Amino acid sequence: MMKSKIWKLIIMAAFPIIFWFTNPPDGLTMEAWRLLGFYLLAIVGLILRPFSEPLVLLSAVAFAGIFLNNTKDLLVGYSNTTIWLVFSAFAISTAFVKTGLGKRIAYVMIRSFGSTTLRLGYVTAFLDFIISPVTPSNTARSGGIVFPIIHSVAKALGSEPGETAKKAGSYLIINTYYTMKVTSFMFITAMAPNLLTADFMNKILGTNLNWGNWAAGLVVPGLILLLIYPFIGYYLDKPEIKRINNKEIARQGLAELGVMQPTEKLLIAIFILALVGWAAPSLLSLIGIKFTLNATAVALVAMVLAFLFGVIGWGDMLANKAAWNTLIWFGGIIGMATALDKAKIFDWLAHTISTNVSFTYSPFTVLCILGFLSIVVRYFFASASSYVVAMLPVFLTIGKAAGADPMALALLLAGTNSFGGLVTHYGAGVAPILFGAGYNSVTKWWINGAIMAFIGFIVFITLGYAWWDLIGLLQS
């Protein structure tokens, strides 16, 4: 184990060493070239994982700061407002788990709509959708709230791994993964890597992706997929049990939760306040009312209200490792990306590609090719975050050089990063939890996941593209 870690560290260290002692290509300064070496150290470290993500990024920032004397530039990522937006959303996510409100919403939806296995598939989809805007960890959302409930429903129906998996469990479990991969791209706060995605897109493409226009562009194709996926999944893996005693299942679940507590009611109010604050500027601008309400400020107020009214305590937030991990390593990578942008490395890369590569395809064809390739490449990554760091700048730069519409490219790649992870049983942090339940084979997971990813791609380049054009997001 130690030998493996040493080799990983040697591979990582090779990049800044090689870049330090080689001359930069035309158009780049020596400082920018050496900075790129440290950035590649971070990328490779996130892929090889000799240590946790925060430690990898802190190491890259620390050594780059020592050797390049640019610590101030590298730490600027921690002042990025989007990071604090997502960090604040983690607090609301913590509250959903602690208060039991997430489970209560689930059981109410099961009681109201879950009378058949197919309908229960849709309950899963829209439960995930409802809580996704304030749960940046899809592992916590699907693995901590949705999965335990759906798993207990499968067991209550007599569906266990093995011979009885086909009764209901295999469909219900894999459908949880499908729908999570859709809700994860619908809001910038629904998956932590989305903030990094938006930051790269704004830097490289010059877009202005914020909470409002991200949601405006992706909620509609997302809702279309939430209507399609449970239905297609049902017929790809048709369960033996068709009808469910949903009233009894919901009764038992709600009885365990007891009467609704004041903290749950307060959380509902805070949740609605946050959604209104995030969406209002974009929605009102459609009718000519323009005003600015900073999305991060809204999130911070929501978080503070949760603390002040006792919905959660500071100790609960300290125990949320995902929130602090995200803050530390995303701040580091955004700081490094900002330094790269300041050094004009992305501009140099775009110029180099456009000068040396002949693009004979139309911008829309380039868009389709890059979208398809991003899904194929996503197969090699077990983490949406590492994919964003390693591959997204490349795809964005190629698309920019080829003349693809910036916002269309941004929204398409935001989607493919998420649903592209459907092709494997390791494409997200929650995937091992769901696959590990034992209801699905690797073969079925990969084949059905590839079908779902392809459907997502088709929806994006047809209905999604038409929607973006209709609401005026496209530049061409």
Task: Describe the fold and architecture.
The longest helix is centred in the C-terminal third of the chain and has 29 residues, at 442-470. Helix 3 (53-68) packs parallel to helix 16 (321-342), helix 8 (138-156) packs antiparallel against helix 9 (169-186) and helix 18 (363-378) runs parallel beside helix 20. The chain has helices spanning 2-20, 30-48, 53-68, 71-74, 81-99, 101-113, 117-131, 138-156, 169-186, 193-205, 211-236, 246-257, 262-285, 295-308, 314-318, 321-342, 345-356, 363-378, 384-402, 406-419, 431-435, 442-470. The model has no long low-confidence stretch (mean pLDDT 88). It has 22 helices and no strands. The chain is globular. The chain is mostly helical and 476 residues long.
Count of DSSP-assigned helices: 22
Low-pLDDT segments, ≥5 res = none
Mean pLDDT: 88
Summarize the main sheet: none
**Rg value:** 23 Å
Q: What is the terminal separation in angstroms?
A: 53 Å
Write out key terms for the chains shown.
74% helix, 22 helices, 476 residues, mainly alpha, globular
Question: Summary?
Answer:
This protein is mostly helical. The chain is built from 22 helices and no strands.
